[in-house]
Amino acid sequence: MVRKDAQPDRRKRQSAERAALLGHLPSVDECARELTGRAESRHLRRDYVIAVVRRALQKVRSGLLAAGHQPAPRRDEIAARVVALAAAALNDDWPGLRRVINATGVVLHTNLGRAALAEPAVSAIVEAARYPSNLEYDLERGARGDRDAAVEAELCALTGAEAATVVNNNAAAVLLALAGLARGREVVVSRGELIEIGGSFRLPEIMALSGAVMREVGTTNRTHPRDYAGAIGPETALLLKVHPSNFRVVGFSAAVGVAELVAIGRKHNVEVIEDLGSGALVATQSYGLGHEPTAAESIAAGAGLVSFSGDKLLGGPQAGLIVGKGALIERLRVHPLRRALRCDKLTLAALSATLRLYRRSADLNAALPTLAMLSRSADQLEADARRVLEQIAGRLDADFDLRVVPCLSQVGAGSLPAEEQPSRALRIGHRRLSPDELAAALRQSQPPVIGRVSADALLLDLRTVDDLDLLARALAAALERLGDKDAGAQRLPQGKERGK
Ligand SMILES: *Cc1c(COP(=O)(O)O)cnc(C)c1O
Fold it and tell me: Does ligand 1 lie within 6 Å of residue 243's CB atom?
């Protein structure tokens, strides 16, 4: 009985408190007036500032309501809180894409944007962005042209192909090739090559989407020439070879090379197309890596079409490059999907500038950031790591443990998955803070530093770092702040406020 009566009483009291609190909240206008004229909002649209204030007010309001029936703060105190919150939000107005420092040791990190572009490619983007260009205009004839013209000649020269076309990425290239050449017909592919790449590129799904019928042959670990030959019939449109990019079958395994596939195809008058994935244009062995097949090799072996990415080992912008026989490329060019999958002028400008470097630059490793990273020696990386260490060591307290350690870096983006290059990392440990806490703090630094968490420390691999001094500055500031916070928490009685 007592409970039953107490309940409505408490509710009444709560709703009265609630009404009182909401009654003396400052208005959006009041808070916004406080902000106008301040540096944070001087260059911003008024309606944007109002929207940010409104959000801040909502946040403070729900904070007060959640705090329950403690004595509500004074109105001017609440206003000050809202203004501070809004000002912080206006100050922290980062663009959607922010520069980060890649210290993961993964050279082509898909989550961090893969290849960084060479300077001439960056300039080409700026030029194409700022001015009109001959994107689809034939300057000789004074008539409509094709956007492939910007890159076709270079691609053919580099790969030995007759013709070339470019779409948005390699996933689009494979889709277009299958839709354009095999819709409603069969494509023979080895079960050992039915791959999934990160980000939901799954070969069977792309095949289904293209309208082609997948004809699987062989087994996961072994596929023989007779498997392909036995599957060819009147419905066969293509033989497809796919680079197993991000995995390796080792041990009792067999696959059919592209030259052998071409020989089988010729007997039955069926073309071979190959998804090369990374599609290096240089010999990867010269970087101490395994051999990554090149488009030129597949073309020389007689493949009808070869597709590969622009932003993997090639070191250019995101794009899907297709090179091969003129008649096949022409069928793709007139396909409606090509219009939907085409890439924009900024991409073409960057790709064209990158390909020109391949043909003209006397020192490719210096010109292309991706190749520059791959060619860094362990000795050089050791010196780099020491340089960063020296710049920050003196600024941190004794709870930090900083060392240069050997590590292994990776190519990434599904290129050469079994291969690692010896590298050097700055190893950051701390007496109390966990590697995850250190990593989180560095993600908040400016610019954010992305490292690799190992069992007992945070590793910053120097191979992929593009600016050592910037890294040192960002690190020193973030770690100093973290150290101060930790020391502050340590001074609290029983360290009650610590923990994650
Ligand atoms: C990476 C890769 C793709 C996808 O390329 P994107 O350019 O990322 O679309 C397709 N096939 C293979 C074999 C790959 O390695």
Answer: yes
pTM over 0.85: yes
- Ligand 1 atom at minimal distance to the Cα of residue 243: 13
Task: Give the tokens for residue 257.
Answer: 């090379």
**Domain count within the chain:** 3
SS3 220: coil
Reference 384, options 395, 368, 372; nearest CA is 372
Same domain for 349 and 281, yes or no, is: yes
Tell me whether residue 419 is in a domain. Answer: yes
| Structure confidence at residue 252 (pLDDT) | 86
Provide the percentage of residues in the chain whose pLDDT is more than 70. 96
Summarize pLDDT for 372-430 with one digit per residue, the tens.
999 999 999 999 999 999 999 888 888 999 999 999 999 988 777 778 899 999 999 99
3-state secondary structure of 291: coil
Boundary residue ending a domain (340, 367, 394) = 367
Residue 277: inside a domain, yes or no? yes
Whose alpha carbon is nearest atom 7 of ligand 1?
170
Which residue CA neighbors atom 1 of ligand 1 most closely?
277
Which of 364, 368, 366, 367 is closest to 311 using CA atoms? 368
Kindly state whether residue 444 falls inside one of the protein's structural domains: yes
Identify whether residues 204 and 280 lie together within a single domain: yes
Cβ–Cβ under 8 Å, residues 225 and 260? yes
Same domain for 172 and 85? no
Task: Give the helix, strand, coil percentages of the chain, each rounded to 5.
Answer: 50, 20, 35
- 275 CB within 6 A, ligand 1: yes
Q: What is the structure's pLDDT at 244?
A: 85
Q: Return the pLDDT at 6.
A: 57
The pair of three-digit structure tokens given for residue 30, joined into one six-digit string: 């009041």
pLDDT at 480: 86
- Please report whether residue 1 resides in a domain: no
Six-digit token pair at 484?
């101060």
How far is the centre of ligand 1, averaged over its atoms, from the C-alpha of 167 (Å)?
Answer: 13
- Give residue 381's domain range: 101-108+374-490
Residues 329 and 441 in one domain: no
Give per-residue pLDDT as tens, 165-213. 999 999 999 999 999 999 999 999 999 999 888 777 899 999 999 999 9
Same domain, 438 and 481: yes
